[in-house]
């Protein structure tokens, strides 16, 4: 059994605390914003677990790790929704839908009747779509609350304070963009969302709408609430959502489901996702000031909830046996 300090209580840190405490380690989780933390990219997520949809060229690693992560989600999270993902396009953007289908796996082509059967709220407005039956979704803050409770039940200690070096055997650093004090190549990718209440609309799964400029998605949450998002902007700005982005998001939602025109806006917000230059996740093996191992779990880009379980497993396997995951778990050679 190792004594492990974890810094950061977003999706990555919460999964680390959950899995490591479940595997018998003595875990302390630190975050001055509290546990779970809303002051991070995980607090501004949609909850899509789209391993195939995220597997476009250049993101194959996210797809492959995501498929492994989905098995961990299925094993440990009883509230996981496994209804798949539906991708549609307006008639003028069918070419973009075809391109998306050509570069992703795990889908079947669906026509107007199948689309209407999957999601009656779409009625007969879309004649072509792609259905990724093995994908899922969660409600982010509900999942974070669940895993913090389970980690505590397994013995993890939760500390709402900034971390200062202790006598822990290992430190797992899940601070996201704040870790740029060591990981110099991290950059921010800003995401914005609008959350609405609409009792008159029902969706069973995330729906994505392809577009050559502004890809868009809507994720159903509980109590007739929907998360609507679209943006991926190269920026470190953690300020509120902008008028332009919110206007584009709401216009796309109305085009997808006109009944959403009667939705009430619950809130809108924005945050910044930590990303390495190639948008692939990494676990960087460094050291604390006293020479103990410090593992930087970072660069999850827009895949934070999807990939956190498999990164926690890779971390635990390394701590327990020294097992390496080529391409993911790397020695700190100063490049990062």
From TrEMBL:
GO biological process entries: D-amino acid metabolic process
EC numbers for this chain: 1.4.3.3
MF terms in GO: D-amino-acid oxidase activity; FAD binding
Domain of life the protein comes from: Bacteria
Record flagged with keyword Oxidoreductase: yes
Cofactors (names): FAD
Catalytic activity annotation: a D-alpha-amino acid + O2 + H2O = a 2-oxocarboxylate + H2O2 + NH4(+)
Domain FAD dependent oxidoreductase: 6-317
Record-linked InterPro entries: DAO (IPR023209), FAD-dep_OxRdtase (IPR006076), FAD/NAD-bd_sf (IPR036188)
Keywords: FAD, Flavoprotein, Oxidoreductase
PANTHER family hit by this protein: D-AMINO ACID OXIDASE, D-ASPARTATE OXIDASE
Family: Belongs to the DAMOX/DASOX family.
Protein name as catalogued: D-amino-acid oxidase
Species this protein is from: Rhodomicrobium udaipurense
